[in-house]
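In this section we walk through a basic example: taking a raw amino acid sequence and producing a predicted 3D structure, encoded as discrete structure tokens. The instruction is simple. Fold the sequence below.
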Amino acid sequence: MAEPEFRVTGVRIGQRLRSLTRAGQVRINDGRLELLTSYGSEIDSAPVRAVRASRPWFAPDDRALAELNGRRYVLTLGGDDPGPGAPGPPPARRFVEAVRRAAGRGG
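The resulting token sequence is shown next.
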């Protein structure tokens, strides 16, 4: 299996007020976005061209929104983040840019 284009572990994945996992994974691999539990079970997946990813303006730098198959997920991407003050963009921005790049919408 090829190396994923984007991968973050230790992600809190939720729907509205319901937490689905506190240590999940987000992967972009072979043109698909996959939301996985900490054990590797699939929560949801969709082709990246069908995914809407954004960053809410009122949320912390580690929070992103993803809409897959008509379902909205709140992602807290602080798992393997180097922390504040580290070089590079915040984790949520890296996620949104990776989705756009993989979908061919620019970044």
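Looking at the output, two observations stand out. Residues 6-103 form a domain with the PH-domain like fold (CATH 2.30.29.30). The chain has one domain: 6-103. In the next section we compare this with other chains.
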